[in-house]
Amino acid sequence: MINSSSQAYKKARRQYLKSTKSRDSNADWSAFRISEKHFKSKFPPPDFTFVLDLATLDDARAAEVAAGVWAGSPDVVPTRQLASSKAYVLPSIPGLVLLPAFLTPERQRELVKWSLVEHCRPPNETNLDTHYLLPDQGLWNAFLQERSALVHPRPIDVNAEYIKQEPGPRQLVDNIPASRINFESIHSISKPLLLPSVSAQPSTSANLLPRLRWANIGWFYHWGTKHYDFSKGKIPVHETVRQVCKEIIKLIDWNEVFESDTSEWGPSGPDWVDWHDSYEPDAGIVNFYQTKDTLMAHVDRSEVCATSPLVSISLGNSAVFLIGGPTRDTKPLPILLRSGDVVIMSGPACRRSYHGIPRILENTLPSYMKEMTDDGWAPFRAYMESTRININVRQVFPKGFTPALA
Ligand SMILES: O=C(O)CCC(=O)C(=O)O
Ligand SMILES: [Fe+2]
Which keywords label this protein (predicted)? Predict the structure, then answer.
């Protein structure tokens, strides 16, 4: 697998030796950080012995596992398959539900197309909107039409109030966890526009596409404060994604998932009893990762409802997903997520756990995404070669909580 005489290997080795010489004593050495570093490392390559990989249990996925280069083990922690569906739960993380290969290759390709063609366009916001005046038809559709057409930087409005966001990966802002009690005060926090880059130059859609990092679903999210900005109104969650999420939540027998759970359920009690009816996604994000990208340890705590299921769909290249506990000091469990896998984070013990993506696994696009199944697939195939897409869908308000949002 590793060619130790290649230039890439030698470069990675030099970098590794350099990085181990200059360890900063003030650095974050939490259990989560140590695990992130392990999986980010190019040299030595990470050990996958203790990575949970449920695909290795499935004979139908043997060729996919072999082609995927990296493989973990199915039994690094105790798991329990539900009697009622092909879902797995982990007694060590109550509320985490894994549905390996839930989506057929055909549904995966449909969701890739949906993410780029239908979702990545106004009125949905993307990370690039802060800095560029993106075409009305969306960046992907403009790219298909005319790859070299220029996209211009967003001018700064001298009369507007802005806040500055540092460049690079998502910032470590430890925002106040939203709840029914503090909802009004969080809602009233000012949410100024993010300052457009002063150095952005006109760029082509082809050059901007690898810099696409996320597109908003439903309620708008304010990245400067890490709270929802309800003043901007709500875009309904698109039927394609809403239906997939509702189907998944309905398919799970939640009684089977939570039977042994004794953790705190908060003011509303164990609300899973009526998720089949009350679950209604209203927010989320589509994440676009290039193979060099990572998502640092974080908790999704901007939603008022801290228990309702978060549905997370993986498409394209595989990734290592780390899931820990209430602080960064809990040693996280690494899980190998492949295209078509679905993860559900639900309940008080899991929904607000630290998690992140330290590594996208290079060259792991499954063969069915490389086949030319229809005439229009070629540009999607080329983009997906180096991409992982994650559709991450949430419910902001618990059942019966209907604040005035004026
Ligand atoms: O990409 C993933 O699987 C996780 C994404 C995530 O945690 C998030 O968007 O909050
Ligand atoms: Fe998250």
Answer: Dioxygenase, Iron, Metal-binding, Oxidoreductase
- Whole-number Å distance, alpha carbon 81 to ligand 1 midpoint, is 24
Q: Is the ipTM of this complex over 0.95?
A: yes
Nearest to 329 by CA among 130, 86, 114, 31: 31
For 268-322, the pLDDT digits (tens) are 778 899 999 999 999 999 999 999 999 999 999 999 999 999 999 999 999 999 9
Burial class (CB in 10 A: 0-12, 13-18, 19+), 195: middle
The closest residue, in CA terms, to atom 1 on ligand 1 is: 390
Q: Residue 311: which region, alpha, beta or left (left: phi > 0; alpha: psi -120 to 50)? A: beta
pLDDT band at 105 (very low <50, low <70, confident <90, very high): very high
Give 45-71 pLDDT, tens digit per residue: 999 999 999 999 999 999 999 998 899
Pocket of ligand 1 (CB under 6 A): 285, 287, 295, 300, 312, 321, 355, 357, 390, 392
**Dihedral (CA of 7, 10, 15, 16) sign:** positive
Please check if 274 is assigned to a binding site.
Answer: no
Residue whose structure tokens are 């004979």: 59
d(CA 396, CA 104): 28
